[in-house]
Amino acid sequence: MGRTPATRSLENALRRVGFCRIAGVDEVGRGSLAGPVVAAAVVLDPDRHVPHVRDSKLVSAGERERLFETILREAAGWAVASLGPAEIDQINIHQASLRAMSRAVLSLMPLPDMVLVDAFRIPNLPIPQCGVLHGDRRCSAIAAASIVAKVIRDRRMRELHNQDPRYGFDRHKGYATAIHLEAVARFGYSDVHRRTFRPSSLFDTMD
Questions:
Q1: CATH code, domain carrying 82
Q2: Of 74, 120, 124, 206, which has the fewest Cβ atoms less than 10 A away?
Q3: What is the pLDDT of residue 92?
Q4: CA-based diameter of the chain, in Å?
Q5: Stretch (H or E) spanning 41
């Protein structure tokens, strides 16, 4: 699949069988050691194509920002939801990711009549849905959601860096890079670190 843009094939097929308002949903920050998990839900307008949309991991930071602005301007609807470290620690990251995605979808107004989710299905969602394997690379709506979630979360991590620059959140966005792990070993956990995320082989010196 490489850097090929995601397509609207699945959304178009669903429209042909009667679905009109199709949302793609994805989350960012699942594997981070710090900061929130952020989910976005995006309903693309079938009459206003956004070119070059692909999985946010395959897009440069500058291109993500450009696509982010275009998606928000051209989409028929979008919403974002996030859960912070305390809630992640309380219910675990998998459940937090699902909860954030559910909140994002249910914040759309009007609600979609179909939801396409990257890989997972969202429990107890009162809307028809389909989990799409590698959806962020295959499906335009999910790819758009991945870009929106990524840009929103990266901006939040830069804000957290400005509040406490010791950890370098502006560089690694809370993920377990060597620089981040060295900072945690030196300064300990901050208020925005997830206490249940402890790579034991790297943090033995902290015990």
A1: 3.30.420.10
A2: 124
A3: 95
A4: 59
A5: strand 37-43
Residue in the structure block whose two tokens are 């307008």: 45
Return d(Cα 163, Cα 156) in angstroms, integer.
11
Overall domain count for the chain: 1
Instruction: Indicate whether 1 belongs to any domain.
Output: no
Q: Does residue 2 fall inside a structural domain?
A: no
pLDDT on residue 143: 96
Report the pLDDT value the prediction gives residue 199, as an integer from 0 to 100.
56
**Which pLDDT does position 4 carry in this prediction?**
77
Residue showing tokens 């995601």:
6
Q: Which residues of the chain have pLDDT under 50?
A: 1-2, 200-207
Here the tokens at position 147 are 């870009």
Domain that holds residue 184: 9-206
In whole angstroms, give the CA distance from residue 184 to residue 204: 12
Residue with tokens 């830069």: 158
* In-domain check, residue 45: yes
| Sign for the pseudo-dihedral over CA of 145, 148, 154, 155 | negative
- What are the start-end ranges of the H helices in the chain? 9-16, 61-74, 85-91, 93-106, 135-138, 140-163, 169-172, 178-187, 200-203
pLDDT at residue 197, as a whole number: 76
